[in-house]
Amino acid sequence: MKLIVLGSGTSTGVPRIGNDWGACDPDNPKNRRTRVSIIVESDQGQRVLIDTSTDLRQQLLANDIGSVDAVFWTHDHADHCHGIDDLRVMRYGRDGPMPGYAADETVRRLRQRFGYVFAGQFGYPTIVTLDTLERLRLVAGMSVKWCQVPHGPAQSTAFRFDGGTHSVGYATDISEITRELVDTMYGVELLVVDCLRRDPHPTHAHLAMSLELADRCGATRVVLTHLDKSMDYDAVNAETPDNVEPAFDGMVIDL
């Protein structure tokens, strides 16, 4: 299996508009962060895209990715779904739409906002067939587990993909460690987890919460994502355990 971090930044990215780098060193390219999205690739080379970030086109070009085999959404917030139109080019040459999946409420909201993507319009074909997660157990040669996690007053979906002896968990935009989340991620080899900043936040995990989740689920390796301008790459890397590291755009991990 393989993890590709397409984007590792919070909703405003790093730097923020106005060239605001906060505490991040602008001379370190690992601090230049687009909005969060990842790809999980199976040992057969099939790719699952999680979230269509606002920066999706730029991310796919930067990582030389021209196709994916399925799309998942964690929730419908703009930084996680408003790049959805960039899926249109990956529909070219396919026999049919790409399969897409999300939790019930996210499906409802995405259909309401982007109906043309899921039903076609004015002669344009359907880009994605959108289904709920209830009966999904296998995708792109990998088994799938998922659970809903509080994201402040909203919810976000955490995913786990297992292929052979390897496993990748993804839990972004979370504000609470639930029993179901720990159970879903328990024993995961690689955990990619929300870590907005060091101080507590009402809708996101902070550093201590992220490390607590990693410890409680026994993750072998941990990657911190959704990082804001206070989270300088080198500083965070120096203060976390050896098996924990901050994400950066273009990061590739082979399992």
From TrEMBL:
<dbReference type="Pfam" id="PF12706">
    <property type="entry name" value="Lactamase_B_2"/>
</dbReference>
<dbReference type="GO" id="GO:0016787">
    <property type="term" value="F:hydrolase activity"/>
</dbReference>
<keyword id="KW-0378">Hydrolase</keyword>
<dbReference type="InterPro" id="IPR036866">
    <property type="entry name" value="RibonucZ/Hydroxyglut_hydro"/>
</dbReference>
<protein>
    <submittedName>
        <fullName>MBL fold metallo-hydrolase</fullName>
    </submittedName>
</protein>
<dbReference type="InterPro" id="IPR001279">
    <property type="entry name" value="Metallo-B-lactamas"/>
</dbReference>
<feature type="domain" description="Metallo-beta-lactamase">
    <location>
        <begin position="34"/>
        <end position="226"/>
    </location>
</feature>
